Amino acid sequence: MSIPRLPLLGLALVATTGILVAEYAFVPSAWLVPVTIIALMAALLRRGTPALLVATASAFALAHAWQWRDTPARYWAEQLAPESREVRIVGVLTGQPEENLPGVYRATMRVERWNLEGRRIALPGKVVVRWSTPNPPRYGDRWAISGLLSRIEPPRNPAGFNAAEWWGRQGVFLELRAGRDSPSRLLDRDQGSRLRHTALGARAWMLHTLGVGLADAPQIRALIAGLTLGARDREADEYADAFRRTGTYHLFSVSGLHVGMVALLLWLLLRPLGLSRRHAVLVIIPSLFFYALVTGASPPSIRAAVMLSVAFAGFLLDRPVSPANSLAAAALLLLGQDTNQLFSAGFQMSFSIVAAIFLLSPPLQEFFSARLRPDPFLPRRLYTHRQKISSDAGHELASTLGVSSAAWLGSLPLTIAVFHLLPLLAIPANMLSVPLAFAILAVSMLALVTGAVSLWLAAVFNNASWGLATLLIGVVEGTAALPGSYLPFPPGWMQPAAQITVFDLGNGGAQLVRTREQAWLLDTGSESDFRRIIEPSLRTAGITRLDALVVTHGDADHLGGAVLALEASRPWRVVDSALRDRSRTRNNFHAAVASSGRGKSLALPGDIERLGKSTTIRILHPLPGKASRQADDQCIVARVDLEGFRVLLMSDSGAATEDALVRREGDELHSDVVVMGRHGADLTATEAFLRAVRPAVIVLSRADPFREGSDEPALRNRLAATGAEIFDQEQCGAVILTATRHGLEVRGYLDPRRTLLPVR
């Protein structure tokens, strides 16, 4: 395959190379400017292919350096917000605001003016704004908002969403948080792109129309909206896990599959109306781009719209169209608009699947076709009528299997990287679910068309979509429930023998204790913590089901996500404290446990559970009937014997618990690592406790040490006197303790420092 025959493919490859050079080689922009100019002049004067390729590579490298590494927005972010500071900004919302909490919105804003420390500064750029307002904002609003400006921080926990990189790829490096009492004012409406306003208005009308008649089925309604328009709604989250495990989660993201379906539906609709092929094509091409815009203008949808438009243009001009050149044209268009698209999972998934279909589906189709022929040695003209029917059916099946297998192979690397599982039944699951998704999309389109005339007719079609969606859910969940439908990745044998992760949740708390045999989760943090941090971490670690969920006490910042953990992680058992409290969060959790049918046991001092060959967990506190005035001193305190190393997990325990442990355990309290409680400094880490534990490593939480009137310097002095290595989560984020053949390795997620406690 040569570049002259596939010129756009060659240009796309060198453009990608240039972006990668700018991303990883750190070539200065000052070098790229003259190289680009000289290569471009050489290409224009001599019209040589090598000069054109060099000019393309250097131009894309320069564009990426300016969009990511050397962007003025990054520079001003470093200058304006080395630390949080109060500012007032005036700007226009560039995205449709999302309502995260009732009355609390998040949106991107193009800043027109900054008011910083009494100075008005005209600096263009974009920020993420989070503020509270009773008036729902919308795209194109001009607002004046005061709040706390800070840099968007990287994740502090394993598998945490990297908001800093995700927003940075969009040219956003700063975040403004405005409290409920912070002044904010709507200045103007209807700024921004008229086309975008039209698309958002059309999207809102479509979402409303697709929900007519489905008020009593919010989950199904959310599923239909996701399949049709790519709308994300938490109501459909309960089905997400089954779609991930069957490799069909791509149905929720508007991609080439959806755009191709829309093109086919429009063709089937327009041709019977009497339009010629050429006129039908002229209607379909802008319709595809409008559909891509309405659904969010994602890279897969734009890629598909460009590819199909190129194919249709070839049809109009009576010119053959190369699929590879069409794919390359789409890549050049997207990367020319934003080079950061190359590093998005959607871009990579979309192009890898299409490339795999182009390259692998023909040989795979031939492979399956050869095995589905009635008689491979008999010419088709000698087939009987039954054999011809069988041959035609086998050909269609071979074609479907070939495309599905190629798409599965193309998506496999990213599926493993993103979802951390290997969907073994993805091919049959997609063969069953894709036709159903197409039917739902077709019926939903009919609902939208008829909804413009009569909402009653839209409701009829929506209820038909409800039936199809229910069948789709049954197919996906049934496939996911089959033994061996998926494999967690990485598998257990690739995991460390034993490991403890102390999550950094601020004022909340959670620890994951895992071996190759079992996984125990001690607390879940808040509901938000579990969704954003804990659940992705479990999925990344290949943990699809917990062996035990331990509830140390009833505080919402430790127990708030426990109900979600019951649903998502399906623990075999629940371990609860022997002491009771009256917190609403705990009562709700007990009700959820009772309805789930999970086994529940009480944690009693002296209880020992084996988690692996050389790993046990022992309960040290609390004693039954020994309730404390301080609720946090009713916490479960556990000690993990991790491959011969002792790790003491104090949860939220304070001085009263420490004194009780010293009296009962004495020298047996000695531990190599202690994860301190989250009380104020004057209520924890007593000298007697530290003398009894004699830790080599101390882990401090990021909780506010002054929330209970503490003496921070006194705490630091007591801890320093122990001679232990201190891992402060304020600086290091989550702390990971891993048993290796050399000893116990302790490291902070944000800290390159490593501490190794050698094998004794």
Task: Describe the structure in your own words.
With 760 residues, the protein is an alpha+beta fold. It folds into 6 domains: 7-70, no CATH class; 73-192, OB fold (Dihydrolipoamide Acetyltransferase, E2P) (Beta Barrel); 201-246 and 425-487, no CATH class; 254-343, no CATH class; 362-421; 492-758, Ribonuclease Z/Hydroxyacylglutathione hydrolase-like (Metallo-beta-lactamase, Chain A, 4-Layer Sandwich), CATH 3.60.15. Helices cover 48% and strands 19% of the residues. A 9-stranded mixed beta sheet has the order 16-15-14-13-12-11-24-25-26. Strand 19 (637-642) and strand 20 form a beta hairpin. Helix 9 (256-270) packs across helix 11, helix 12 (323-337) runs antiparallel to helix 13 and helix 14 crosses helix 15 (426-451). The chain is globular. The chain starts with 6 loop residues before the first helix and ends with a strand. The model is unreliable at 705-709 (pLDDT under 50).
Number of domains: 6
Backbone structural class: alpha+beta
CATH topology of the largest domain: Metallo-beta-lactamase, Chain A
Mean pLDDT: 83
How would the global form be characterised? globular
User: How far apart are the termini?
Assistant: 62 Å
Oligomer: single chain
Instruction: Report the C-alpha radius of gyration, rounded.
Output: 30 Å
Number of strands: 26
